[in-house]
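hiii, so i know i said id send this last week but things got crazy w the move. better late than never?? heres the sequnce for the chain we talked about at the cafe, plus the structure i predicted for it. fair warning i was half asleep when i ran it
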Amino acid sequence: MVVRCERVSGSVAEDIALSFLIEKGMILLERNWRWGHKELDLVMKSICAKTGVQILHIIEVRSLTEPCAQMPFESVNHKKRRAIISAAGGFVRVNNINFETRFDIISVTFSSGGIYRLEYFQDAFTPEW
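okay and structure toks below
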């Protein structure tokens, strides 16, 4: 998806990601949820139209401005994944979630002229509970 954007910041990338996910039918449960020093950017829920099964989506939003040496999603390294998984475990326990949890990444790359590109990586990584 390529769209015009006037400002560039992490919160703008989260706004863009949130709008995209809501358009896909997801429901926002939390934004910038904190577990100690760790944070979950977006916590969303989807419901399968065919089966009615609920899925919890823990979504990490990453953004960079071009030119960049790597794509935003590539910055979600092993240490960052462990932090996200740890915070997600806290969220699941605190909120007594008992349905499937998926870890997704949304990558937003901003370029000159206020254009951005959004990439959505479903099931980007798997936790080692």
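btw The chain has one domain: 2-125. thought thatd interest u
miss u guys!!
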